[in-house]
Amino acid sequence: MAKDKVCLIINPASGTDSKKNIPEDVASAIDQKKQDLIIRVTGYPEHATEIARQAAKKKYKYVIAAGGDGTVNEVARELVNTDTILGILPLGSGNGLARDLGIPIDIEKALEIIINAHTRKIDYGVANGHIFFCTCGFGFDAFVSGRFAEDKKRGPLGYVRNVLESVVDFRAEEYEITYDEGSLTEKAFILTCANASQYGNEAYIAPNASMDDGMMNVSILKPLNALEIPQTTIQLFTKNIEKNSKMISLLTQKLHIKRASPGLMHMDGEPVLTDSEIEVRVIPKGLNVFTPTPSEINEKKRKENETIFNSLTRWFN
Length: 317
Ligand SMILES: Nc1ncnc2c1ncn2[C@@H]1O[C@H](COP(=O)(O)OP(=O)(O)OP(=O)(O)O)[C@@H](O)[C@H]1O
Hints:
It holds the Pfam family YegS_C. The chain has 317 residues and is an alpha+beta fold. It has helices at residues 22-29, 47-57, 69-76, 96-101, 107-116, 140-150, 156-169, 229-237, 294-316; strands at residues 4-10, 35-41, 62-67, 85-90, 119-127, 130-132, 135-137, 173-179, 182-188, 190-194, 216-221, 247-252, 254-259, 263-267, 270-274, 277-290. The strands form 3 sheets. A 6-stranded antiparallel sheet has the order 6-5-16-13-8-9. Strands 12-11-10-7-14-15 form a 6-stranded antiparallel sheet. Helix 3 links the parallel strand 3 and strand 4 (85-90).
């Protein structure tokens, strides 16, 4: 019987972790009697897209993206609506998609998820022809993504520094927003379309978003004053942002956004220049991804809650 073809794509520029051992780790984890492994290292932005396009065309069984959300996006956008499955080794700075799917950040464990071969079909979004899997945004998050793309230093700390610097320079814009059930005009600090619930690094902009409900969560955060920033930041990291009085949450399949002039948007954290009018829509269950099983995810959540409970008990005793 012919062997299945598998491709590993490594982005050496993502995140801060070393990728030196990744080829060897993957090669020893997969069953080489049944699978042929091809390893490619990206040499420039969008290189991963070219490699993944060829892999899908040649009917590879799966493609593993070793990198962050930008790399995953570049790979996955060529795998949508094909039979080729996406595997993720989260080696980026934010790793939003992996975190939201319950894929462990520990690479050995993430590799086990691929080997165990449980798959899940997830939705994706399209904004003016650009595909996203986690979030696409037009306000402060797009501004930060532009800064971060120019930054030589990656990793979560790079994000923190860019956010703090951007707060000073960012100016909120007004948006005319038309969704399935109505329309509104708002000046917004953040306007984010979320397929996943978080940007990455456990920053939950749409805590109730589901990646297989065929719907897009839209989070509109009105401009904040300096005193509101600390509480809003806490709400973002504790899945409570929807309790913020400046937050408007919508659920829709389609969205039309109009702003005064063309500008930046981000797709899974990567900045793109786009028109003053933007069409966003959801394509249901178009991507097949290796993920933990539902019972593995529940077990992980149970352990996390237990750890929090134990820490609190220790603290109070
Ligand atoms: N050889 C390369 N040299 C420089 N940049 C590259 C190379 N290969 C890919 N890239 C680009 O690196 C960028 C960052 O990759 P990626 O988004 O995966 O990492 P990250 O930004 O650190 O993580 P995250 O998106 O999870 O925050 C992408 O825009 C990608 O196009």
